[in-house]
Amino acid sequence: MFVTxxxxxxxxxxxxxxxxxxxxxxxxxxxxxPKVDIKTLSACAAVCKRWHRFARGLLFFKVDGALDNExxxxxxxxPGGLGTCVRSLDLDVKRVCTKPVWTMxxxxxxxxxxxxxxxxxxxxxxxxxxxIQLKALHxxxxxxxxxxxxMQGELCVLYQLMAIWPSIxxxxxxxxxxxxxxxxxxxxxxxxxxxxxxxxxxxxEPIMRWLLPPIPEGQKGSLHIxxxxxxxxxxxNALMEYMPxxxxxxxxxxxxxxxxxxxRCSALEELIFDVSDxxxxxxxxxxxxxxxxxxxxxxxxxxxxxxxxxAMAFTRSTLPRLQQVSINTxxxxxxxxxxxxxxxxxxxxxxxxxxxxSPGGLSWTSExxxxxxxxxxxxxxxxxxxxxxxx
Length: 391
Prior knowledge:
This protein has helices at 16-25, 38-45, 49-59, 69-77, 102-107, 128-137, 156-164, 205-211, 237-240, 304-316, 336-339, 341-350, 381-385; strands at residues 28-29, 35-36, 62-64, 88-92, 95-96, 99-100, 114-119, 143-148, 170-175, 194-198, 225-229, 248-252, 270-274, 296-300, 324-328, 353-356. By secondary structure, the protein is of the alpha/beta class. The chain folds into 2 domains: 12-59, Monooxygenase; 61-388, Leucine-rich repeat, LRR (right-handed beta-alpha superhelix). A hairpin with a 5-residue loop joins strand 1 (28-29) and strand 2 (35-36). Mean pLDDT is 81; it is low at 1-11 and 360-364. This is F-box domain-containing protein. Residues 13-60 form the F-box domain.
């Protein structure tokens, strides 16, 4: 009888490059809204020192300090330099006895790429001490999500942040309707790659012109991705100059476009329509003339009944470069060929891929704010790592 030792039956160790790929594959839980698989990554971090260093970089890639700033301050400031792992940070503009405490968290994150900032209505602008502290950090923030709370909020904090960090290329502005923000002053030298306006309508034209200034003669517009809500009788003049350079247009479709708007989108590769709140006077989707350059169409809505007519009309239109049609609703997930029988046949006949996303993901804000080689800009580990590039 042969006796086999325990060591002789152990599986050979894998090269760490393969282990790293396996750990990366666990990063995203397959659910909507997207979440990080903290449980699995924490277990990986406890295996050995090498796994620990790699897994903690993913565990602390994005930190939400908005709910408990002081707790996260202690974690980031503690031993081990966890703050150096952080690329994306959620914060509230919080002051204690008029002294800023939120700026302290930024000082622990020297490699920060994305800042998601919630600003209360009682903080109309940054105080002098906050401005001094932020400038002293020498951060190069690339992406800013600016959420303004309250009906009478001001955008002065946004103007100040853009002056402190003209490196910002990806900007999301979220605010309630009803307020009339003060107009900005001198414009810092920033250029936006992506602009998302979660504002129910465009901002006042002087503010839009501040965000998107006239394009110098002989140059191309920097804006590649644009998201906004179509409003009734909305003046889109501030956008028109940039539309020939926009590659992805994301629209909360409530009202018709001005005549000739879509025709100006001569470089458009991706069109995303959210039809969950379409107004009664919106045009028949068959009447919309889409740019022939589109490669990816995405239609989102509450249910398939409101989404499918748009998807059918767009897919049947003359789009020679169309490669993928994506559907996203709140309904329970089904295979596209089972839920969208007619649409599935049209796509199959055209050789177009049909993708039905998981329910609940009616926004595109889960994407990583990075430059795009090809649309759709999927939430992949490769795109996440692009947030490591700080030059």
